[in-house]
Amino acid sequence: MLGKLIKHETRATSRIFLPLYGALLILTIFTKLALALGAPDFFSDNVATNPVIEVVLGISFTLYFIAVVALSVMTLVMIIQRFYKNLFTDEGYLMFSLPVKTWELVLSKLLVGLIWSAVCTLMIVISFFILSLGSFTMMDLTQGISMAYTEFYSTFGTSLNVLIFEIMMLIVVSTISSILMIYVSIAIGQLFNQHRIVASFGAYIVITIALQIIGSILMAIFALGNLDAVISQGQDGEAMQMIHLLINGSTLCNVILCVGFYFATQYIMKNRLNLE
Amino acid sequence: MKWYIDSDRPIYKQLVEQIELRIISGVYTPGDKLESVREMAMDAGVNPNTMQKALAELERMELVFAQRTSGRFITEDLKVIEEAKKNLAVQEIGAFLEKMKKLGMGRNEILALMEKIEEGEKEDDHIKH
Amino acid sequence: MTILSTKNLTKTYGKKTALSQINIEIPRGRIIGLLGPNGSGKSTFIKLAAGLLVPTDGEIIIAGEAPGVDTKAKVSYLSERTYLNDWMRVSEIIAFFEDFYEDFNRIKAENMLKDLNINPDDRLKTMSKGTKEKVQLILVMSRQAQLYLLDEPIGGVDPAARDYILNTIITNYKEDAAVIISTHLIADIEQILDDIIFINQGELVMSSSVDEIREAHNKSVDGLFREVFKC
Fold first, then answer.
1. Crossing angle for the helix pair C159-171 and C129-141, to the nearest 10 degrees
2. Are the Cβ atoms of A101 and C69 closer than 8 angstroms?
3. What is the pTM of this model?
4. Domain that holds residue B106
5. I need a labelling partner for B93 at 20 to 30 A (CA). Which of A178, B74, C9, C207 fits?
6. pLDDT for res C14
7. Cα dist. C63→A215, C89, C147, C149, C175 in Å?
8. CATH code at C31?
9. CB-based contact (8 Å) between C1 and chain A?
10. Assembly ipTM
């Protein structure tokens, strides 16, 4: 059943995202062509070009940035809207009478939301890459990367891969926890008989503030507050240790949040559901 | 077929009456096979359970009998049908006389009026032809 | 054989009591009318049976189990609301139902759509409210469920479609299934009901068969209802 929910969820969201991604790609390619044809040295020198080209490029870039922002915003909006509209408005009557478990409903939306977030980021990165093609060669790129690795190793004695891996973990886990934080806020809003949307926003704000406070306390406890001082004092080894601690600590905290938010959401949906 | 269903009386009783009437008046001939309960219920716009109840009652009245695998049939026993016809007629006449009593009409008045009406009907037939 | 039974079923929202100590048994093979004024608790009862609400106290048992994934597979629920995704086509929602419900009969659904002149390629958002309700009803009735819960199935529908719907309920009749119809339009459906359950202010007022009521009171259920709940 989970697979079917995911399939349906993907179908419901694709119809919004695919056109947007298409638009982004078209704008990217258009901008790139305009650059290539009209201002091939755009990224290297500030050579004055034909004013017509400048206007076209100006418009093109503006549209491009709007597309990037729209895509990011849309991804967030979709995550919120799919959860709220599909489960807690009239459509909820259908979804909750399906022979599926509550956790399958939550997980299907979470996974699809996560995937779209990843795709969104990927698309933006790809489009940046397309735009900057030609301003550096593949040689430049590979040289730059291996230089980073060797420098890192000589300074810290460990491979850069470890740090990259830890950062990726943090990004994934914190994305999941932010999605779940949205879900649990919506679910908490459902506990009220009136003004449910306001209550959801309220819950979100309260949780955010609570997390900030707890975060600061934890930072103090683990003496991570003076990281910048340690760095400026040139204590690279110590600084890197603190960075690892900070990253992995955050990851761990996010995992705890994920579990907490998930079970809270599940509990409310299973036991306190009250569709209007 | 048209079914006349009143909202104030149990439906199954009304179904029994109307089917009985059709048997007596020959709409259903003796030995006829009845449609399935479901089809009859659909036709009348009633719950199959209700139609089932009506048919069970008709079986009890021996106007209808069921053969396990082949379905339900109108009885071929003409005596039973005659009996039912008489009973129904007695009922109708009884109700009619009650009403007439309320109008204050006596037996002779009723008979005289009946003959007059029958005469009138015969004349109408003549005129038409 | 009982398909649904409740024992002291109670549902409260804070201080408000929607249902209180309901005890009923619903046998298979019956068509039951769940009647009562607005706000009487009818919808609450249906939602509890559909597994959309959790009882505050007491229990509700469907085919031997408490409401959950298994019972939802056996229960076909028609909500009062339009619960279909607007952006979908009719054909897509049929595929959806087929996907999630093993007992869904696609051929039946397609035939009913044809009978009511509904084009499967149409998008739901282009349809009138009445047509959407018909689509919903078709989907619900195309399932071979053990319990059908119909919340106001003929409310917003024209008289011709109303007859079609009542006819569909009769034709769909199965000896091992029960149909619970919650409505305030008693006169229109009384003819197809076996039994009725009157609920008022969260309490069970009467539970009887239509025949018994007509025999005992010499009036239709609709007539009795008007008398009992006279304003």
1. 10
2. yes
3. 0.86
4. 79-128
5. B74
6. 81
7. 51, 34, 9, 14, 14
8. 3.40.50.300
9. no
10. 0.91
